[in-house]
Amino acid sequence: MKLIAAGVAACAIALGVVLPASSAAADACPTRMLFEVGGMGDPQGNVFNAGNAELPPGVEATKVVYPAEIFPLAPKTLDDSNAEGRATMDRLVREFHASCPGSRITITGFSQGALVAGDTLGNLSKDNRIPHDLINGVLYSDARRVGVNGGPGGIMTNLPTFLPGITMGGPRTFGDIPVVSLCNQNDGICHSENLLTNLLGFANGIQGYFSGAHSAYDFRPVTHNGSANTVFPQPPLIPYGPPLPLPIPTLWELFNGKPAAAGAMNTYRSVVSAVLPQATKDRLDEFPGLAS
């Protein structure tokens, strides 16, 4: 097809005919473009490289490069880093759609990148500059994942904002844009039990984060379509049962945006620390949202 188009263009030039620019541009467009964002410490989105090596014909990938940092583990705060990522993602997506208005767009991210990708999807769902039937999302370990049937959601739906530069944004939705959200049960970033009704379950999410559950995903977003909010069952690393059958709100619901948030989190951080193995306790400052 490209050879035919090239031949037509050559003949047109020889005859002095000017072809519409859109014809040549459309011929060069993929049927689907993946916009990929990596997690903390992966500004180039290398976590998606294996999947990109297997992309089917007509599907291409664009890496959304951003700082991928979280203070105090790196110079930039999570909020500043993510703001840069969202701005870059929004620009790249809109530029691509302007050039290839008929192509599908998949927005995908892992961990911190899932925040960037998910927030971008949420913003796109609120306007119609890009038709929603051309957009879908695939999120791996989204800290703002909504819990299923009242179950645990992401940690940013569970803990309040208490550290400068790390805004716990709460749950978010995507309107009519289909999004697949994937989460491992032991991954405390996307599956965070209510600390007030299931302390051991909350601690298990921290233990799982440091024991590999956070990165154990199959990063092949091209294979995921439709809408799904999936938690993959895993045997707990810290034994825990169902939450207390009491209507106790999460700490996010109780304290987010209130001056008492920092004091409350200092108290509950000590409570959680007491039930963790020493090796995990020593690394608690590395768990996003729990630094002291």
UniProtKB/TrEMBL annotation:
UniProt signal peptide: 1-26
A Pfam short name: Cutinase
Molecular function terms, GO-annotated: carboxylic ester hydrolase activity
Organism superkingdom: Bacteria
SUPFAM superfamilies cross-referenced by the UniProt entry: alpha/beta-Hydrolases
Keywords, in A-Z order: Disulfide bond, Hydrolase, Serine esterase, Signal
InterPro entries (alphabetical): AB_hydrolase_fold (IPR029058), Cutinase/axe (IPR000675)
SMART domains for the chain: Cutinase
Similarity comment: family membership: Belongs to the cutinase family.
Protein's recorded name: Uncharacterized protein
